[in-house]
């Protein structure tokens, strides 16, 4: 295949759907006793709903939406800390756009900007570096956010700042890792998962072997997937075939992009700049050991937590979820967005209560964008 349209070919999709149905019937999957497949990545969730794959697959297949949206899993306390930094005199706070409207306990970054804080949306940490060069009298802070997908670019920006001696640039590091929350979910006795669709962009950086424990220790199949509809359908079929054959392996459907052992340049940059935190708090999952990254001591001058004396540098704050918000349950696959009592009522894209409604990879945003008001039952 050479063109994106080929990955959306209806004829090829029908062939895959027929094969999925055949294997699902063979393993006895039904609507009342479905096979639960978790798509870890929020980008996959949006693709599933954009193309209606949840409606097209065999009724015995149920997609469980995982914690693969880095904006969504960030606890409200960290958003509060972003705002606390941004509201300090002389600070230019920079962030990716999908974090602007995520609510903290009192307001979002967008509301803080409206209140007068100098908060700017950027497309890359290199944009923040350029702001630091142009504003030597200001402190420029970049909101380092994301899984292994975005971690290398932040690491490279820190390395460049060190080479140039840009003392007015720093990163508020909230980079996190994918394998650890998957393990936390598998250790949860209340979770019922039969297989996984592995994240494509993350795997492009780390490769496929960090997921080996899922197959080896838990006996669950995983297929790393691309983001087009045929990618996802083929990945579902790969997982079902493993179940039917009694296998549990890590397979790479996205081999055109994902190298087996990852990207060595990216991994080297991550290893140089970051070290693993002892633990990090996840929305809905709580503290997970060794699931986050922090900036190494040799780059401490570019660590906003140390520079501003905030966050894990001074001790973590406990902040409860907004009342009635089910973000944690949705993100860990315990419930669906439409089952949250606030979905479409107290929580909409215009007035979000939780991060999942405004993030570009949030499950609630996917349900709203592709289901909208039709997904909301009339309130009693």
TrEMBL record:
The lineage of its organism: Bacteria, Pseudomonadati, Pseudomonadota, Alphaproteobacteria, Rhodobacterales. PANTHER family: HYDROGENASE MATURATION FACTOR HYPD, HYDROGENASE PROTEIN ASSEMBLY PROTEIN HYPD. Signal peptide: none annotated. Keywords: Iron, Metal-binding. GO terms for molecular function: 4 iron, 4 sulfur cluster binding; carbon monoxide binding; iron ion binding. Belongs to the HypD family. Coiled coil: none annotated. It comes from the Bacteria. This is Hydrogenase maturation factor. It comes from Thioclava atlantica. The keyword Iron applies. InterPro entries: Hyd_form_HypD, HypD_1, HypD_2_sf. One of its GO terms (biological process) is protein maturation. Pfam families: HypD (PF01924).
């Amino acid at each position: 295949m050479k063109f994106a349209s080929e990955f959306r070919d209806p004829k090829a999709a029908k062939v895959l759907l027929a094969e999925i149905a055949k294997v699902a019937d063979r393993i006895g999957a039904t609507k009342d006793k479905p096979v639960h497949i978790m798509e870890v990545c929020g980008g996959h969730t949006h693709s599933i709903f954009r193309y209606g794959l949840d409606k097209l697959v065999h009724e015995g297949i149920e997609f469980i939406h995982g914690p693969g949206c880095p904006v969504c899993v960030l606890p409200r306390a960290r958003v509060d800390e972003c705002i606390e930094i941004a509201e300090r005199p002389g600070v230019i706070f920079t962030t990716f756009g999908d974090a602007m409207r995520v609510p903290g306990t009192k307001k979002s970054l967008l509301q803080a900007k409206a209140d007068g804080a100098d908060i700017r949306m950027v497309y890359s940490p290199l944009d923040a570096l350029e702001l630091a060069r142009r504003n030597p009298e200001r402190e420029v802070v970049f909101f380092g956010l994301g899984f292994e997908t975005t971690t290398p670019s932040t690491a490279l920006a820190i390395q460049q700042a060190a080479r140039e001696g840009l003392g007015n640039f720093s990163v508020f590091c909230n980079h996190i890792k994918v394998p650890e929350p998957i393990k936390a979910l598998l250790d949860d006795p209340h979770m019922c998962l039969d297989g996984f669709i592995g994240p494509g962009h993350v795997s492009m950086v780390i490769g496929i072997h960090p997921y080996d424990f899922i197959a080896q220790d838990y006996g669950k199949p995983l297929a790393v997937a691309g983001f087009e509809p045929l990618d996802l359908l083929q990945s579902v079929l790969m997982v079902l075939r493993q179940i039917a054959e009694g296998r549990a392996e890590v397979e790479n459907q996205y081999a055109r992009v994902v190298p087996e052992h990852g990207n060595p340049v990216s991994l080297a940059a991550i290893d140089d700049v970051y070290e693993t935190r002892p633990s990090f708090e996840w929305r809905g999952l709580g503290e997970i050991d060794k699931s986050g990254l922090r900036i190494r001591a040799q780059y401490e001058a570019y660590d906003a937590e140390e520079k501003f004396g905030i966050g894990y540098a001074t001790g973590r704050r406990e902040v409860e979820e907004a009342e009635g918000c089910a973000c944690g349950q949705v993100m860990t696959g315990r419930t669906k967005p439409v089952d949250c009592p606030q979905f479409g009522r107290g929580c909409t894209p215009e007035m979000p209560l939780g991060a999942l409604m405004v993030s570009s990879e949030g499950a609630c945003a996917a349900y709203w964008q592709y289901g909208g008001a039709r997904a909301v039952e009339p309130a009693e």
